[in-house]
Fold each of these.
Amino acid sequence: MEIYDITIIGAGPVGMFAAFYAGMRKAKTNIIDSLPQLGGQLATLYPEKYIYDIPGYPAVKANELVGNLEKQLTTFNHTFHLEEEVLSIVRDEDIIEITTNKGIHYSKAVILALGNGSFQPRKLGLENAESFETKGLDYYVNDLMKYAGKKVAIAGGGDSAIDWALMLEPIASEVYLVHRRDNFRGHEHSVERLQESSVSIMTPYIIDELMEENNWLSGIQLKKVKTDETVSLSVDHLIVNYGFTSNLGQLSSWGLESSRNAIAVRSDMSTSMPGVYAAGDICSYDGKVKLIATGFGEAPTAVNNALHFINPKERTQPAHSTSLFNKTIQ
Ligand SMILES: Cc1cc2nc3c(=O)[nH]c(=O)nc-3n(C[C@H](O)[C@H](O)[C@H](O)COP(=O)(O)OP(=O)(O)OC[C@H]3O[C@@H](n4cnc5c(N)ncnc54)[C@H](O)[C@@H]3O)c2cc1C
């Protein structure tokens, strides 16, 4: 049984920085997120937006900040469990049992950096869609080469759908982009590149039916919006890119004291469950401000106090700052 010192649930900016800081304190660290990628709201909701209130950066794009956090974090050899949603945490004597949709993890302390809750892709609203999730229907692109030489349809009208279509154009044998409106919501430059590409643009269509042959997706039927007109495309893969939803799911049943839809913490970031700490958007205390910068401050507080909880001999202040406390404030 693998037991971590600290398990960080949520790999948004705050969870990522907490994991980096846990590495600085040599804690054996496990990071769990329901998404396949790091970066939380920044990576899923606004990767191209500039952020102006990060100390030391006059302006930084969200995806660049995530890239830098990742670079900083991967200096340590932490364990990652991505695409795994935490369903419950239970304290059993000195160990916290973390149950996910894929298994159970054990940890001496936990830091909850859940933000607005677990992100999930918005799914295709067809009755039998779920049964295709292991046979040609994808909500994430993890490995571009899996589509090499294949006929691929992408559904969606935002930047991600357009970006995937353009990235797959030279790799797949055929790329279709299906959108229910005539206009795309992507950047003008991306839309222009799309129009100049060999991607077949199918608008305004919705996906009406998934077809199967030899236990794999063989095609999709499209229905033209506000008409009965249908068209069938023979495809090997369908990538649905309808954005994400976030929800706090079963958090209310985890037995943690909460306030205003967030987890109540003390000034050391501890929650009402011994050994469980919280930081970032998910935590609540008097005067809490939901910003990346404030979350970055809460993360080391949570890590240091979690380590002190595991081993009371551990200092709660980083070594380099202790000299401050020998001085008398005049
Ligand atoms: C459009 C927009 C613009 C913004 N601009 C700014 C800005 O300019 N400056 C600023 O400071 N802030 C900005 N914010 C707010 C900022 O994004 C948040 O404060 C920040 O993302 C909080 O970070 P976090 O790590 O606490 O949570 P999140 O970024 O929400 O990350 C939480 C992570 O936890 C995961 N998770 C949650 N529950 C579970 C579970 N049960 N199991 C597994 N994984 C789970 C989620 O999948 C997610 O990846 C903006 C927000 C939005 C929406």
Amino acid sequence: MDKHRTIIIGGGVTGLAAGYVSDLPLYEAKEVPGGICSSYYLKAGESTPRFKCPSDDEAYRFEIGGGHWIFGGDPTVLHFIKSLTPVKSYNRSSAVYFPDENLYVPYPIQNNLAYLGKDIASKAISEISNAPKRVPVTMEEWLEINFGKTLTDKFFAPFHELYTAGLWTKIAPQDAYKSPINIDAVVQGASSDQKKPEVGYNVTYLYPEEGLDVVASKISSKCNINYGKNVVEINTSKNEIGFDDGTGVKYGNVLSTLPLNKALEAVSIEVESSFDDYTSVLVLNIGAKKGKNCPEYHWLYLPYSRSGFHRVGFYSNVDSSFLPVSSREDNNKVSIYIEKAYQNGSKPSDEEIKSYSNSVVNELKDWGFISDAEVVHPTWIDVAYTWARPGSNWKETALNELQKKNIFQIGRYGRWTFQGIAESIRDGFYAGSSF
Ligand SMILES: Cc1cc2nc3c(=O)[nH]c(=O)nc-3n(C[C@H](O)[C@H](O)[C@H](O)COP(=O)(O)OP(=O)(O)OC[C@H]3O[C@@H](n4cnc5c(N)ncnc54)[C@H](O)[C@@H]3O)c2cc1C
């Protein structure tokens, strides 16, 4: 190969988009394209994922990273996705769930205070209206300044403790747009428990009629991909990439979608300041007979759960095509994804995951969400949510150091940022066409 050639690492949606517009060679560790956005199938009683739907269509369809809905995004990227495969549009339906009270408060909680009773509503309104003017340093401070002590104690603190795996008191505020605050909407929401107009970043979203994996497989069919190529080293003095099968490839430039911390490890660069935190997510995909109290929401945020998860999503409440074909009409089954966060890659052992899975199934049964579970399958997303310590310049330094060595980091994990599928595809298009 031409030693000045640019290569792409990673066949998730970012790398695929870069490969699609450039035809540059792409190296992917797994045997399938799509990264976190790949789907897989399991029939009742099975535990080994199938990456193709069985011919009788009698399988649950799950996603590696839990439900992945295409929200926001540049119209041109959405147009591209629609040109690959038909998509449907859905109106978000989500809530905060307080299991001990069996109480559902529609999202966002601050605009639906009537559900929490007069006392909490009036305290929350007074605290939000008289928010202190200081600039928050941590996520904890940001939450309390914006939402006041009452709502923070009731929901935001315990939820963020779970969602960030305890990091929320140390990390900088991030993603303010996920919890928009408008005092008029807050006051209006305290007066009646009628659901209020939807706000936030994912009011409507798209999902491919034939499943998300169709997007990855259609893009990948136009890419020059080498599967089963797990990069273990990037040797910047020899301009050579080493794979775990003992082979290597020369490069001129690298477009890398590896998470930023993993790219530094592969290059053996140590950045002076300590690295920024991240959370890993254990996703538990469950297919089950529906319980008598199974809600109709698309997903729920939890301030507490016995098993320690913070979000429960219902694939089949979004679309029945996630269910085995014979159950789609009857509405007697449900497919669910459950997310639990861990600090900085601290993966539980197989035994711990087994015991956690049993605990989740029992908890969902106790709530009446499911009766018998037919499939229970865990997936591990090592770098799922990336954070920054207040004042940290780790990310900028790391990106600069890699760039000096012709390694260009792209995508959500490459650039250590929060973004969805459509933005990741846009990143890939942009980077791919620049080389
Ligand atoms: C829990 C969770 C829920 C989410 N929900 C949504 C949602 O609802 N909607 C939405 O739009 N976005 C969502 N996202 C974000 C979305 O997943 C990302 O924006 C997108 O998947 C990023 O794609 P990527 O290609 O950059 O990364 P990845 O999908 O991680 O792809 C990286 C690829 O690199 C490969 N790779 C890794 N290491 C190596 C190596 N050493 N050598 C070779 N290859 C390697 C991996 O196998 C993978 O294929 C969610 C993310 C998480 C974590």
